[in-house]
């Protein structure tokens, strides 16, 4: 194995990465005796997914990490057949020895045994090869079962429990899901004096809740789901309590759920649901659940595409190219009946001749009179790119909103045939004339778009409560062993749409910055908020740049940040709307502006955005359907007098963006090609921005 020096191209300098090889989900996060343990999905044999094992690292501050030997290693027989892989799970410290797995570690002054406090890992055993275990369990090929292993030396060495698997199969009603039954998260529930386990039936979008007195024998208590983002696979659940506004008498429970595919962009994503838990059943708060069949109260339906015997021209729309003379189609007949999630019977679709049809379909003009436009959308991920739109390089398959001749909002599909709700805030254009245009100029894989139920409303039509609005935050796991007020989460900073291909060597994948979670009441709604852990500030340099502008004029303002900190820094921005339409910062920019990552706030669209269309290398995806480039937004309405805060963490191959209250996060990988150019620039577009405050600190490497 090549010894890493942690300064390879794109190697994160303050995010956790494995020394070598492949890593994905964080597992077994547990705090014990002043030490944070992080286990993680790991391939000891290469830097793509396979031979899944549990890697292990420890920290005393969640910033500096020490790599330890593999905790649980994939088992292979003498013929090279993989017999058992160790998929995702959790870890607990059994302080009361409910499991009976403790051992004597000495005697007290009275000669009585002093027992260890066993660390117990609860994980999914995945069996690629059919066989019978030494204790008589008949294992089917592809079976997923729940197992435990234990350590009596603080996680340094591990022993598999000889009664594994402890939960061999899913409940009888779901017996056919034996190969999609995984990712146990376990914690101690003090009110019932029981261990609680949540795990998923991945393809059913269901979470099963079990209880146990001893970590070995488990009873099914209830199930939850599907709710909100309900297609793709549900994975890596967590269930935990938090206090509302730091009030210990106001406790709520949160479920975190990974979805893949089916994230807010394309590929992977993480949603949260707030509710209550009584030791047996999780009940979602009514305000946390979104019915996909209902449009917002008071909505005006602009087009529902139910007139399947009409042409678009009959409906006042205009087609070009292959879509001239076409019209809405019965959804049940499109793409072999694969389309799901539509309302009524009809949809707009460009899947008329398979994926080969190209052209546009434009709506009649209308005056914007409500704050939101919402619609159902499905199809391939081919986003609108302003730099290539209308050129020979244009490959978009999208719906866009045009105001005064300019595209002000755009949306593409998420590589699925299930329609999902997306909403645009259009409050900034109230009273102006606009139109919608569906563009499909691509004939590649899944190069089509389906649209249904376009509505105008005063509130958005939400699909889910996304924990992060970027493309690269998945399998979020929280720490056992910490107080409720210190609940800390780490996510895998990657996306299954391209994870195996990102241009890094000799390792692949990083973890997000650990984030502290809380529940805060914002705009009369209880929201899950997150901020980087406070210990990250121990890495900050003294101020490299600090300046206040009463007015920042339209254009770009260069900021001098010395190397090496121009590629790893914290940028804190505060500002208030002026005459401009966008404000933010440009990072990793070269002199020709052919490389840049743009982060900011859109005053008219009322959203925080990250634009990585020109961030650097995106050609590593070996497919015409490239899910890496994109423009990612998180809607966050503000008033004209509000002070808006953005906190940005830049590392060698990532950006993480948080608003000042922590209600919005966007996590995105970037892979700059021009390493010698890392200019930093402020920008104010379309006019000035008022009361701008900028503070920049470098971030020191944790590897030196």
TrEMBL record:
One GO CC term, this protein: cytoplasm
Domain Glycosyl hydrolase family 32 C-terminal: 568-697
Record keywords: Glycosidase, Hydrolase
Keyword Hydrolase among record annotations: yes
The keyword Hydrolase belongs to this UniProt entry's keyword annotation: yes
One protein family per Pfam: Glyco_hydro_32N
Protein name: Glycosyl hydrolase
Species, as recorded: Lipomyces tetrasporus
């Amino acid at each position: 194995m090549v010894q890493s020096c942690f300064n390879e191209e794109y190697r994160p300098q303050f995010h956790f990465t494995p020394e070598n090889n492949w890593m994905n989900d964080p597992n077994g996060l547990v705090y014990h005796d002043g030490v944070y343990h992080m286990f993680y999905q790991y391939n000891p044999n290469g830097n793509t997914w396979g031979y899944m094992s549990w890697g292990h690292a420890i920290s005393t501050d969640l910033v500096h990490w020490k790599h330890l030997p593999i905790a649980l290693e994939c088992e292979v027989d003498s013929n090279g057949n993989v017999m058992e892989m160790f998929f995702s799970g959790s870890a607990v410290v059994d302080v009361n020895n409910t499991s009976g797995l403790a051992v004597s570690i000495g005697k007290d002054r009275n000669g009585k045994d002093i027992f260890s406090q066993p660390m117990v890992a609860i994980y999914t055993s995945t069996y690629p090869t059919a066989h019978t275990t030494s204790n008589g369990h008949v294992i089917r090929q592809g079976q997923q079962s729940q197992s435990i292993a234990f350590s009596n030396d603080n996680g340094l060495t591990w022993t598999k429990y000889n009664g594994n698997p402890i939960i061999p199969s899913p409940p009888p009603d779901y017996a056919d899901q034996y190969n999609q039954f995984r990712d146990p998260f376990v914690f101690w529930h003090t009110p019932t004096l029981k261990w609680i386990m949540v795990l998923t039936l991945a393809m059913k979008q269901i979470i099963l809740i079990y209880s146990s007195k001893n970590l070995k024998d488990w009873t099914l208590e209830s199930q939850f789901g599907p709710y909100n983002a309900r297609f793709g696979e549900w994975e890596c659940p967590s269930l935990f309590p938090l206090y509302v506004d730091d009030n210990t008498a106001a406790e709520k429970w949160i479920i975190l759920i990974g979805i893949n595919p089916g994230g807010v962009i394309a590929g992977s994503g993480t949603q949260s649901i707030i509710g209550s838990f009584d030791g047996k059943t999780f009940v979602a708060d009514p305000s946390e659940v979104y019915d996909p069949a209902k449009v917002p109260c008071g909505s005006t339906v602009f087009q529902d595409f139910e007139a399947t015997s009409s042409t678009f021209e009959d409906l006042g729309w205009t087609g070009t190219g292959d879509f001239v003379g076409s019209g809405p189609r019965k959804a049940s007949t499109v793409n072999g009946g694969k389309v799901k999630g539509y309302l009524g019977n009809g949809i707009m679709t460009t899947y008329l001749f398979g994926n080969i049809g190209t052209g546009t379909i434009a709506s009649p003009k209308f005056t914007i009179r409500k704050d939101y436009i919402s619609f159902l959308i499905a199809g391939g991920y081919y986003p609108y790119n302003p730099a290539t739109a209308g050129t020979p390089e244009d490959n978009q398959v999208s719906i866009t909103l045009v105001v005064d001749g300019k595209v002000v909002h755009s949306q593409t599909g998420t590589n699925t045939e299930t329609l999902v709700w997306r909403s645009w805030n259009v409050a900034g254009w109230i009273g102006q004339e606009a139109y919608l245009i569906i563009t499909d100029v691509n004939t590649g894989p899944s190069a089509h778009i389906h649209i249904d139920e376009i509505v105008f409303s005063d509130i958005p039509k939400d699909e889910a409560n996304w924990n992060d609005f970027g493309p690269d935050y998945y399998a979020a796991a929280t720490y056992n062993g910490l107080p409720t007020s210190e609940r800390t989460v780490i996510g895998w900073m990657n996306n299954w749409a391209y994870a195996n291909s990102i241009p890094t060597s000799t390792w692949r994948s990083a973890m997000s910055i650990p984030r502290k979670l809380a529940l805060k009441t914002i705009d009369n709604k209880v929201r899950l908020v997150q901020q980087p852990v406070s210990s990250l500030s121990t890495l900050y340099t003294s101020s490299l740049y600090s300046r206040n502008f009463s007015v920042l004029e339209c254009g770009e303002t260069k900021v001098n940040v010395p190397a090496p900190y121009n590629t790893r820094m914290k940028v804190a921005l505060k500002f208030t709307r002026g005459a401009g339409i966008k404000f933010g910062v440009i990072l990793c920019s070269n002199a020709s502006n052919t490389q840049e990552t743009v982060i900011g706030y859109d005053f008219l669209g009322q959203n925080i955005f990250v634009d990585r269309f020109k961030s650097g290398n995106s050609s590593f995806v070996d497919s015409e359907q490239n899910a890496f480039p994109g423009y990612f937004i998180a809607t966050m309405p503000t008033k004209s007098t509000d002070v808006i805060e953005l906190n940005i963490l830049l590392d060698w191959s990532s950006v993480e963006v948080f608003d000042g209250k922590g209600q919005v996060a966007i996590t995105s990988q970037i892979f700059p090609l021009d390493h010698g150019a890392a200019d930093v620039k402020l920008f104010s577009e379309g006019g000035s921005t008022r009361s701008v405050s900028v503070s920049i600190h470098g971030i020191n490497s944790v590897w030196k």
